[in-house]
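S., here's the first fold you wanted:
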Amino acid sequence: MKKFFSLIAAVLFAGSMMADVVISGSAFAGQGTSSTGSPVSATVEGVTFECDKAYSDDAHSTLRCYKNGVITITAPEKITKLIFQFYQTYNGGLANEVVVDANEWTYTLASQARIEQVTVSFGDSPAPVVDTLNVAQAIEIASALADNASSKEYFIEGFAVNVADYYVESGTPKNQTFYIVEDAAAPDSVLQAFRATPQKEGKAYPVLAGDKVRLFGKLQKYVKNDKTQLEVVTPTVEFLSEVEGDRTIDIPVVERDTIDVAKALEIGEALDKGKATDIEYVIKGYSSVIKTAYDPGFKNESFWIVDEKGSKAASNADGAFLVYRGKPDTEKSVGIGALVYVTAKIQKYSDGVIESWSNCAVHVEEQGGEETVESINVTKALEIGNALADKAVSPEKYEITGYVSYIYSFFSKDFNNETVWISDNPENTTTENAFEIYRGKPNTAAEVGWGAKVKIVCQIKNYGGTIENDGTNLPFEVLEASPYVPDTLSIEEAVDIANALGEDAKTPKYHVIKGFIQDAPLPYNYKGSDNKWKNTTIKMSQFPNEQEGPLAVYKANILKADTAKLVQNSYAYVLGYLTKHGGAQVAEGSNVEFVEAPDMDTVHVNVAEALAIGTNLPVEGKSDRIYAVTGFVNSVDGEFAEGVETFYMADDAASEAMNFLVLDVAIEAEAPVGQKVEVVGRLQNADGETVTIENGKARLLWPEGIESIVLTEKAQKVVVDGVIYIVRDNKLFNLQGAQVR
């Protein structure tokens, strides 16, 4: 068992060696701010982890440390090694394993890091042991995952069956997919090794059916189109035993013509719109303009190439060919003026642009230089854009700096992009005098926020009068974090704000609205290549179990992984603008985050307890909980009529107190003075002394053993020796002491 040392113990036993200490992201729960980050810290077994710009992302049990945030780890003994585990690829420039030789270690992040856990080692502490699973254990773990979720990394041992050919792309071996089973003689194809990379001595080495292998990778439960596949994702392969067989890979020899840009454009012009050539060409050219900056995640970028080095052409009309999402073999931007060889099919895009096939191979023969652009403000960008014809694009790129004035589409966790408008005025809250960054990728990989100062490098496009960047998923940099922290509203508060607006008007800034989902059809299926869920319209309420929520959330963005949570009484935070469109709404494009629901069970109290709770609320404020208040009617203020009555209550029927008022309560029958009742509803502080429940529900309470029975043809009243009985369905009810009507 791991020994736990306190800081004092570590000092007393200076010669001791601490065991590994693991600090998980959940240790920081509830700390920090999500928009800009703030100082957080956690101490586990005497080891302290601090970050000055961070917050706890409880949804993923991670700690988000922002760009330029400083991480400090201190311990009572000398740290020798740090082993980090990150969420996806967000590592902030940190290595997974860091060698240390000090009691304190600091690091400044180059970008955002999402830390799942860090293992702090001392002395010669061994690295964490990776579990080895058999196939049955791996299937059990993968089956228990949420849809499209993945596990930590494991070693998985088994026999290969149903082996596909080693995949070859453009004459280069890529990967191989097969299944692994417990017994090669009795294959049960459940667990798939998806796009494995079997190698020996640094060269591709195919798996054959019957090979015993040890895979290393994450398990995943992949769900698409109602089909589920359990996978080990892109694992490495170690051969434990091999069957005899041919291990050669048939790589077809492809003869490709090497052509210049002019010839590529000639071939493209001869195509019908939307069509591509049947064969690939090698196109030689020099990069002239970077259209979409290099994306290190997808390892591609879009750029124009020309025959004449130094040309700044960026259109087919000027003799340039578009390399669309090319993959440079240097794994970085080709730069400006680079000599490249592009292996791709040539296609004529639907709008007449001649370009390469997506994700084509790019060999960089000579690396280009850095791109130089003119720095301008938003006013100048609008001037340039308004001078363009509709759908025309500026030949030059510009560096545009401004402040976020409006968010059209909040940050997408599916695509890591966001659509915002920027202005020269840091107080602007509209799209007027603003430039649209359409589906840009913020370097913070999180919501940018109103008022943030940002910078984007792009060509300018006039799209039907909207001045925006040309292209999508362009990276942009957040220079100054947003100063705005949105108010968190209840459904009731959100409805009041929305209903006070004019029809189709919006709030100038967005809010976070919390509540229960009551009506949630499955999201619309987005017909993209990845078939991801896009949005849906839901109804939300302040309390659970309401038939229809009073607030409509119109076309909210829902992650596909969260669709199973779209059920009645699931609890969510919605980030968006409030509007009124035939009723209270959250405008299109909001983001929905599912969180743990608060305890909303009805609280049972007497009148004195209800008064204490209610008078602690702000004047005219209502409780967030539903209360069932039991007491006696001590004064009737509004006579019973059509199932509604108004009265005062006290814990003593003889009390003359007039400070707990029940207004217009729905009740089964008249409640006279002295009647014991239970009233259910929300408490409201009327004036600091009087507490009310308005429009709640009430019922009459009878002494123990007494029931309220309405006389019908089947129910008869019987009096025996002065005792009142009711006979119904052959059952005898004693109503001694009860009032019978």
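And the second, which I think is the more interesting of the pair:
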Amino acid sequence: MKKYLKYAKPYLTFFIVGPIMMLTEVFGEIWIPKLMSMIIDNGVAQRDISCILKVGLIMLGACIIMVIGGTLGAFFSVKASVGFTADLRSDLFHKVQKFSFANIDKFSTGSLVTRLTNDLQQIQNMLAMSLRMALRAPGMLIGGFIMALGLNRQLAAILLIVIPLLSIAIFIIMKSAYPMFTRMQIAIDKLNNGIQESLTNVRVIKSFVREKHEEEKFSVLNDDLKEKTLGAMNIVILTMPVMSLFMNITSCAVVWFGGNQIIAGSMQVGDLTAFITYVTQILMSLMMLAMIILQSSRSMASFHRTSELLDFETELNDEKSASKDKKVENGIVEFKNVYFRYTSLGEDTVEIKDKTGADKKNKKAMQPDERDNSAAAGEGFDAVLSDISFVINKGETVGIIGPTGCGKTSLVQLIPRFYDVSSGSVLVDGTDVRDYSLKNLRDGVGMVLQYNTLFAGTIYENLRWGDENASDEEVRRYAEYAQADGFIGEFTDGYDTMIEQGGSNVSGGQKQRLCIARALLKKPKILILDDSTSAVDTATEKRINEAFADELKDTTKLIIAQRIGSVINADRIIVMNDGKITAIGTHAELMESCKEYQEIYYSQMEKKTEATA
């Protein structure tokens, strides 16, 4: 828990003053029963009006002080708990921003959302409750017991029996509840994942008329959360009946033995009334402590989940970068004997086949920063990419083509270090990408991902993700290169048109062109287009490629495409299949020497001919 101290330090005054203010309520609650007994025994029994008024005014003053202290205590407690969780949430969000794609896949988006919202809310609730009750509950327990002991030692002996028994019962209940709260938070993760998926893909769901299927999926997740929540709460519900049982038994015992003492003349009525009040306070303080423990047991599960994020070390960082100040200047890209597999990241054990074919266990999966550049290090990895080697010179346009799932996207994602190689190395301008700072490396690489995303805001705001200081003229110029200026001009508000979240109010082709313009505005040395013109007609795509050739002569361009027409005029074309490079060459060279390229070409030409016919 030491890691959380830094979040408490800025609010240390509130953490201290809040509980102290709550102590004013404790002093009032302890003295008021005694004052009440004085009114009963000395005022009412003796018919002394002046005593009743005098003690009554003292009680009124005590109540006013209690109200002021309690209000201030609650105020400071809220300030401390809200400030603590706000700073913690900010650090967690910054940590998540540094996660690699593999890290996000590990936790899942829904789980990250739950940890940053629901889990932190549980921590905030626990802190607020603890600050209000941390001193009040034990203060009432100790103060009430001392006052009860001072009133009647014999009756106080009853409490010495009840308190340990009640404490044991509460401990058993809380111990049973803790693992259930952990399962409940996991169920919330699953529900958030399901809701996110359904809302993100709502158009697909409606187009396939799968609303009922999604409702059934949601019902399963919702029912699972309901069962997990009820399982935890059913145990917690036992707390109140157990408290009531002990309280009633104790009250009956006090009234029985205390009544006999009144009859015998060894105890006054006012003292018995005060004693019963103290018993109630003592048991209620135990109830408060139980509630603190209950909330703590739930928040401990949340603390554990937030600690996982705080302690998680991302494999993509700048700690071992040898050239942190170096920037991408030319955009020369080189792959040297690169092997890559997704599942090697974060595994404790992987199976590797040795050269004899026998399976053997490697106790630790190869981590990205363990730079074993031997090709053999990748053998048997069941790799997504295997023994990839090539060089792309400054300003070259290189097409990458191959069947779906052959590793095209995985290959280009290694350049800006969205993932790290499992073996071998990727170099930019002769320097291993792991030796750049992530900022400098990614500043030099513009990338239009396979799945394009726009954000809520104007077109200007979306395009300026590429360069937040770009002038209106620059934005328009690069939008023209991406063939986006034409359709933007048709909007009533032009570049001030509001884009809805995810770009749902523009077409697929328009979204792709906006994303290309956004990437171009970075003025990158390396531009990667991952099937980013698939929703654009061939005429528009041709104009985009012509703009690239004329205006981006010094920019190295990698174009992943399914259509040969998208890369046919590239300086070179890389043909991939099953995670390996089959051939590299110009269109003419590949038509002569590469059978796979020929098959792709003729199959697409035949389809084009049939479509024309």
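Why I say that: The first strand starts at residue 333 and ends at 340. Confidence is low (pLDDT under 50) at residues 344-370, 372-381.

Talk tomorrow,
H.
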